[in-house]
Amino acid sequence: MTESIDADLVVLGFGKGGKTLAAALGTRGQRVVLIEQSAQMYGGTCINVGCVPTKSMVYRGEMRATSDGVAEYGAAVAATAQLTDTLRAANLNMFASIPTATVLTGHATFVDEHTVVVETDNGPTAVKAANIVIGTGSVPVVPDIPGLHDCPVALSSTEMLSRLPRPDRLVILGGGYIGLEFASMMASYGTEVTVLEHRPMILAGEDDDVAAAARELLSNAGIRVVTGAEIHSVESGDGAGATIAFTADGSRSTVVADIILMAAGRRPNTDELALSNAGVRTTSTGAIEVDEFRRTNRPHIFAVGDVNGGPQFTYISLDDYRIVLDQLVGSEQPRSAADRVAVPNCLFLTPPLARVGLTEQQARAAGRQLKVVTTPVVKLATVARARIVDQTDGIMKVVVDAESDQILGAALLCYDAHEVINLVSLAMRHRITASALRDEIYTHPSMSECFNQLLGMLR
Question: Which residues are catalytic?
Fold first, then answer.
């Protein structure tokens, strides 16, 4: 027998946008049902298999106290698992205090445009709602390489996070953000890392000088990066490990791995939702089509986060929540995705690479007259913080409109770049000039005070 629930709102997926929206409307007295497929994913990708555990592993790798990388790695995996367990429980308990909210665990599919059926351990439950928000996130892409699908040591980033013991040899298929972050992280624990990237360069969206600096950083960490790599096959070993055959620079080669990390990107998680039953349109990549208000072609159905095909960042999912909330409560000045300006991102290498806005190449292609500064961090004599923490590696670059003095973009490959980039983003959003940022008063010693000297070097 199928149980039935009538609700004001049903949310599919416990990710940042969905859970925040469910909590916000639940505390307003609306009847809310939050559906999550796995009990191991309460709180969403970020806290369970994404941002939080990866950055925990990065941090612990940077803080290694001994030369025993295998033991340090095992301890880091255990500490990270405890952290995510705590956050997962906190996210679930958040709804215990909301009497109008229900959390269901199980796989959900659409029956019609107002109803989903959830297959729970206690049997199916039909949930009918006036409004529906889909936030089912994304899943890893598995490259179509002979032998890869059946290889027992080929793992996704999710599987890699809990895999023990530490591999001695790791081959990463893909030199994007996930691949490079894991490369830097695993090298910090003493793993021999090879990255195979099919494009002619890594970080193709960056200016050549920034990409070169990042590649040098990886090389100095002992990471082998092979670009222009055409992978032919994966052959599993009789006992353990695998051999990857590839061609690069016209030469055919092989590399042996204890573990293969598949880091070829992620795609929207929509395959098993039966969206056709609700008449919801998707793109050729499986992303749910939405307008600037995150509304689908069905006016009462919204899609937030990775599943709508936008940038795959937790903070974008959070902004999607704000946009949808304004729609559902009838805000007089509703937010929209068109309002987003100067959204930063960060690749957590050691040190991290953070960027916002236009590259120099993009700005010149747009016909802008520019002032540009690019300098190695070690040459910024007034930035004592980098020397205090013994992290003077990296490069800083800022691109400024020569006529208006407005900052057009920045790339910061330096200690605390993930924090400092937010100042640049704030300046860009509120049209604070490069000169004003240059002449600000900053705490000392801090990485933020780099702008006093850095922006004084603009030419």
Answer: 444
